[in-house]
């Protein structure tokens, strides 16, 4: 079958409105149809694009979740250590205002319960006489504090225990939490994000240690 051929001429219109033929282009019917037909995506191409897009989104989501979980664990650890440091500073401040020797016996600094507890007295009203007895004790994974009034007699009842720090475990060094030697009190605390599980990657131990000397 013989194809129909159409001839198109291109003209250039100059300033004096005279047209001048530039060239002549011969196009077949097939060529014109090809030029003016828009190409669309096939169903297979759309499915492949969607599959690739889904894989990219899934990978990005997993990365985001992993980063967020790591950030949350790090933040929890920072809060844990900061809370223990605050408890340590609180104890230091009170021990500095106690006495290592003196009478009566309850007013002296005393370490007991295998180095897991300590009690001492402070002057809470500024009359240079010890009047308040304070006690710190480790109870499982918790470090707690309580106090009672000793003067004027009779002694008052102990107040309710207050939690100061949590996630406490045995010191890897083997040292007691409280150790009073040579007039200096050493306090050593080891914390673990998950005390019920052994230490390891993702569950590291964090040890803080300080020394404080009582007033006299």
Brief synopsis:
By secondary structure, this protein is α+β, with helices and mostly antiparallel strands. The chain has helices at 29-35, 43-95; strands at residues 5-13, 19-28, 110-112, 117-122, 132-139, 142-149, 162-165, 168-169, 178-181, 184-191, 206-212. The protein folds into two domains: 5-35, no CATH class; 80-212, no CATH class.
- Amino- and carboxy-terminal Cα gap: 120 Å
Average residue-wise pLDDT: 82
Q: What proportion of the residues is helical, as a percent range?
A: 25-40%
Strand content: 25-35%
Beta strands, count: 11
Number of contiguous helices: 2
Report the uncertain regions: 4-27
What oligomeric state is this?
single chain
Largest sheet, in brief, is:
5 strands, antiparallel
Task: Indicate the structural class.
Answer: alpha+beta
The domain tally reads: 2
How are the strands ordered across the major sheet? 3-4-5-6-7
Query: What global shape is seen?
Result: elongated
Instruction: Note the run of SSEs as H and E.
Output: EEHHEEEEEEEEE
Radius of gyration: 41 Å
């Amino acid at each position: 079958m013989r194809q129909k051929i159409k001839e198109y001429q291109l003209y250039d219109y100059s300033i004096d409105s005279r047209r001048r033929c530039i060239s002549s282009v011969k196009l077949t019917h097939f060529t014109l149809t090809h030029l003016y037909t828009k190409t669309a995506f096939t169903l297979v191409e759309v499915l492949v694009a969607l599959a690739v897009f889904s894989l990219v989104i899934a990978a990005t989501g997993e990365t985001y979740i992993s980063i967020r979980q790591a950030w949350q664990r790090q933040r929890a650890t920072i809060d844990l250590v900061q809370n223990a440091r605050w408890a340590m500073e609180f104890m230091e401040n009170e021990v500095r205002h106690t006495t290592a020797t003196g009478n009566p016996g309850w007013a002296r600094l005393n370490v007991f319960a295998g180095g897991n507890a300590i009690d001492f007295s402070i002057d809470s009203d500024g009359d240079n006489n010890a009047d308040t007895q304070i006690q710190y004790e480790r109870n499982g994974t918790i470090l707690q504090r309580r106090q009672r009034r000793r003067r004027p007699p009779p002694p008052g009842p102990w107040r309710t225990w207050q939690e100061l720090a949590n996630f406490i475990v045995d010191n890897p060094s083997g040292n007691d939490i409280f150790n009073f030697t040579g007039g200096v009190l050493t306090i050593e605390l080891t914390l673990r994000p998950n005390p019920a599980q052994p230490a390891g990657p993702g569950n590291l131990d964090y040890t803080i240690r300080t020394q404080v000397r009582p007033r006299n």
